[in-house]
Structure formats: C-alpha cells, structure tokens
Design goal:
The protein has about 150 residues and is α+β, with helices and mostly antiparallel strands. It has two helices and seven strands, in the order H-E-E-E-E-E-E-E-H. The strands form two sheets. Strands 1-2-3-6-7 form a five-stranded antiparallel β-sheet. A hairpin with a 5-residue loop joins strand 6 and strand 7. The chain starts with about 25 loop residues before the first helix and ends in an 11-residue tail after the last helix.
Length: about 150
C-alpha cells in the first residue's frame, strides 16, 4: 500500500462521490491507521477518505473535537438517520481547503449509523461541534466541499 498524504483543492478526488465499502480487511485497517496519523499530524478534528485520495466511504473524527487527546472514531459507510430541525450557522475550515473559512448551516444534533474497521455496527449520537464535524466529513465522501456553500 502506498503512503497516503493529504490532498488539497482543486484535486478531483475532493469532488468525487466515494464508493461503499464491502470488504473489511487488513488493507482497510492500514488505510484507517494512516488517516488517523495524518489527521493528528495536521491537527484536524476529522478526515474523510477523499482527503487522502481514497474514494471509499470512510470518515474518522475526534469523539470530543475540543480535546485533541480524545478518542478517534471510525465510521465506514456512514449514514445520517436523524437530524434535528434546529440548526446553527457557524464558520468551518477544512484541511483540504487551507486558509479558507465558510459559514455553513448545519443540524445541531444528529444520529449516524455506520460500521467500524472490524465491520461492527456503530451508532453515534452527536451534538454541537461533533455533529458539525461528522456532517462535514459526510459531505466529503459525497464529493462536497465547504467551498460549495460559499455565497457568491
């Protein structure tokens, strides 16, 4: 397996929808381990497969985005199953769009279903910054960037 690295806009992988993962193997675990290293090295709070040129539905994120020492959670094939009607507009940055911040309206609370690297079902209930971070990463695997929210 090649060494992964963070890619930045306008790389085409960032605008490409990722494929569902069907095989949970050692290769997948190696990809996730590299993604975690990259996210922590770049002081991010989340990372998606697209951001390292892996077009698979993988996201990772800190369980407590305010604490860089918090647990890193992996969700494979994540799907938001519920979102609050209550939303908040806030600025977001992105490791793949350096020095750019965009105001984005997102649900304050969400529930997400996915799998971990061992193909075990995961359900995450999130609010505030954690919910925002997960929605941001799911946008990535759908080929959407913060730049797509910019008002002209």
């Amino acid at each position: 397996m090649k060494n992964l690295k963070l890619i930045t806009y306008p790389h085409l992988a960032l605008k490409t929808k990722s494929a569902k993962i069907l095989v949970f193997d050692d290769e997948l675990k190696k990809i996730i381990a590299q993604m975690k290293s990259i996210m922590h090295a770049d002081k991010g709070i989340g990372l998606a497969g697209n951001q390292v040129n892996i077009l698979k539905r993988i996201i990772i994120f800190l369980s407590d985005p305010g604490d860089s020492a918090s647990e890193t959670i992996t969700l494979i094939n994540p799907k938001i199953i519920s979102a609050s009607n209550e939303t908040k507009i806030d600025k977001e940055g992105c490791l793949s769009c350096p020095k750019k911040e965009v105001e984005i309206e997102r649900a304050i609370k969400i529930t997400v279903l996915g799998r971990n690297e061992n193909n075990k079902r995961q359900k995450v209930k999130a609010k505030d910054l954690l919910a925002r971070s997960i929605q941001h990463e799911i946008d990535h695997i759908n080929g959407k960037l913060i730049l797509d929210y910019e008002k002209n």
